[in-house]
Amino acid sequence: MSPEWPQRLVLVLGTGFGAGYAPRAPGTAGSLVGLGAGLGLAASPLDPPAVAAVTAAVCVAGVPICAGSARRLGAPDPPAVVWDEIAGMLVALLALPRGWYWWLVAFVLFRTFDVLKPWPIGWLDRRVRGGAGIMVDDLVAGAFAWAAVQVLSRVVGGGHW
Q1: Where are the alpha helices (DSSP H) in 1-99?
Q2: Considering just the CA atoms, what is the radius of gyration of the chain in Å?
Q3: Where are the domains of the chain?
Q4: What pTM does this model have?
Q5: How would you class 105 by CB atoms within 10 Å of its CB: exposed for 0-12, middle for 13-18, buried for 19 or more?
Q6: In which residue ranges of the chain is pLDDT below 50?
Q7: 133, 120, 54: which is closest to 87 by C-alpha?
C-alpha cells in the first residue's frame, strides 16, 4: 500500500464518498448522504443511545477529516468537503417523531439553516477556522433543525420524544 493511503481515505470521507464533487449543490448532495446514513442507522438494531453515540463519533471525527480534506484540496473550506453536512444532517435526524414526513422536514430545515446561516450559525462560520470551523456551523444548523422539528411535531401533533 502507498504511504499516501491515509490521506486518500480522509479525502474520500471528507468528500462524502464523492458526493462533494457534485457539479451543483455539493452541500445538498452531502446532506443526502447524511440522510441515507440516518436511514441506515434507523433501520439498524442500534438503540437510540447507540445511534446518538455514532452521531457523536461522526461529529468528533469530522474535525480532522474536514481539516485534512481541506488541506489536501488547498482551500480553507472547499465546497467539495461535505463531511460537515453529513454530520449536521445526522444531528438533525436524532430522535425524530414517527412518520416519513418528519425526515423530509428535518432535511429541508437543515438545508435552510445551513444555506441562510442565521445567527449564530453565520457568526460561527465567519470566525471559527480549520476543521472545527468547517464543522461547527453545520452542527449548529443540525441542532436548530432538530429543535425546530421537535417543536413543530408538538404543535401539529404526532410527536413522540
Answers
A1: 5-14, 26-43, 48-73, 83-92
A2: 16
A3: 5-156
A4: 0.95
A5: buried
A6: 161
A7: 54
